[in-house]
Design a protein that fits this description.
The chain is an alpha+beta fold. It folds into two domains: about 140 residues, dinb family like domain (Four Helix Bundle (Hemerythrin (Met), subunit A)), CATH 1.20.120.450; about 90 residues, SCP2 sterol-binding domain (Nonspecific Lipid-transfer Protein, Chain A), CATH 3.30.1050. About 50% of the residues lie in helices and about 10% in strands. The strands form two sheets. The chain has a four-stranded mixed sheet with strand order 4-3-5-6. Helix 7 packs across helix 8. The longest helix is centred in the middle third of the chain and has 23 residues. The protein starts with a helix and ends in a 17-residue tail after the last helix.
Length: about 260
């Protein structure tokens, strides 16, 4: 069974990898638009900065975290001034992100598997809480590498994201006020190292197979399923992957299909 400290270590590694990508950028490159409509690379790092800091506060000072939610809700600009860091220079953003990451890493070292943490919505178990931070870093990092048209090394850290994507199948419907379709889905994935990961019952009538990275891109809404190498067998599986959403917040539609 995955331990909370294993997830914490993988989160740090993913953050460090993204740091190596953005640290050398020029000020002009920091202002490059990403596939996330209206967001630049700087906005993306600002977003990660804010929520990594909020995550550390949620662990160490739940009352202060609860107050920060009220500030976010009351912000007249939808919270952009708070969550996107548009008042900071690229250098200032990078410095603040590193500081908030360090805070989060320090508090993550104190967590145990049975701890629950208040967040935006229901509280989360420590492993799920850190997995969500890892998913956020990886998914928003994809927006950045897409904006830069560069490749990012893949690793088996995506296993955490794949598992989160699988267990949030029901959420993808509930979040839209829809009934979860009856029937199980079997997911069989190949990690970057060649490792085999499976989720769901062996005898499920519907099946998703293919690269784990592609599955993660779909459930984080960074790619349409038709733009991946995933094989999808069954109407229930297909319907899920067309609306999959592994992250919290209101329902979103993800990226449009670019190939046929």
């Amino acid at each position: 069974m995955t331990d909370v400290h294993e997830v914490a270590a993988d989160l740090r590694a993913e953050q460090d990898l993204l740091d190596t990508i953005v640290a050398p950028l020029t000020d002009a490159e920091w202002q490059r638009s990403t596939p996330a409509e209206g967001w630049t690379i700087a906005d993306t790092i600002g977003h990660l900065t804010y929520f990594d800091g909020a995550a550390a506060t949620a662990v160490t000072d739940p009352d202060a975290f609860a107050a920060s939610i009220l500030d976010l809700v009351a912000a007249p600009d939808g919270g952009a001034a708070l969550t996107l860091g548009r008042d900071r220079s690229p250098k200032g953003l990078l410095t603040k992100w590193r500081a908030n990451r360090a805070r989060l890493s320090d508090v993550a070292a104190t967590l145990t598997n049975d701890v629950r943490i208040a967040w935006y919505g229901p509280s989360m178990g420590a492993k799920s809480f850190l997995t969500a931070r890892l998913m956020e870093c990886w998914a928003h990092g994809q927006d950045i590498v897409d904006a830069l048209d560069v490749e990012r090394p893949s690793s088996d850290r995506v296993r955490h994201i794949a598992q989160l994507g699988f267990i949030t199948r029901g959420w993808s419907y509930i979040n839209r006020g829809m009934e979860v379709p009856a029937g199980d889905v079997r997911v069989e994935l190949v990690g970057p190292s060649g490792a085999q990961w499976t989720f769901g019952p062996d005898d499920a009538p519907d099946r998703v197979t293919g690269p784990a990275v592609d599955f993660c891109l779909v459930v984080t809404q960074r790619r349409h399923v038709d733009d991946t190498a995933l094989a999808v067998d069954g109407a229930v599986a297909r319907d899920w992957l067309e609306r999959a959403q592994a992250f919290a917040g209101g329902p979103t539609e993800g990226r449009p299909r670019t190939t046929r």
